[in-house]
Known about the structure:
Protein name: 4'-phosphopantetheinyl transferase superfamily protein
Largest sheet: 4 strands, mixed
Strand order of the largest sheet: 4-5-1-11
Number of helices: 7
Mean pLDDT: 89
Keywords: Transferase
Organism: Orrella daihaiensis
GO molecular function: transferase activity
Family: Belongs to the P-Pant transferase superfamily. Gsp/Sfp/HetI/AcpT family.
Amino acid sequence: MSPISERFDGSTFLVRHLNPGVVRNPDLITQITSWLDEAETARLARLINPEHRHAFLVSHGLTRRLLSKVLGCNPSDICFGVTGRQKPVLSHPFNAKAVHFNLAHTQGLTVLAIGPEPMGIDTEWLNRTTKAGLAKRYFTQAEQRDIDYQPPELRQQRFLTYWTLKEAFLKAQAWGIADSLTGFEFELSPPGATLPERIRLRVRDARLTPTLPWRFHHWRIEPEHLISLAVSTQATTDPSIDICPWTDSDWI
Length: 252
């Protein structure tokens, strides 16, 4: 397999995922901790729950290590800023390659996307508890009907498919839930339909018209996680997505 810096060729989006719980090597933990900046170290110190602290550390370590491979620098050299809507962006090092990234996590999984254009990514654990009435609050009637139409054993997955797609789109646009999840809707292929899966965005509120052209991708990561990705592209064909697990050797 070619190095990550070579695969990041200006058209490919990289997606890497891992379970933070498997990262337990003491030397690696020490190394990751040394990469954090003052702001990250302060945020880490404020986390009381050990599991949350560990997930934060591994997630930010993953971000710094993958970015460092793409940019050809040390993980500790990377500096971050935020947009006006508090979306993290890369502020240093600056080079000719435009690099965008987005991080998401859920119970048992962290996922990071890096690419040459803006994107948003989201993930959910299929066994999470979903409150009654959540679909009515955040989903359109068409989306609710589609969820209700599914067999009982598929409704949770269908619900979370819509949820992760909506979150990925909002993150890509640097919007928030306050911008209304019912102002737009997705149309999906029936479960089990022939690939490629159809994912269409339909805007219902003109105020939420996308500022960029978006394409959407969705995966189930066995055994119990979903990932959705929104990527900006001017191309008429789907962009190249390089998605795979992050392994122990990738930290090197």
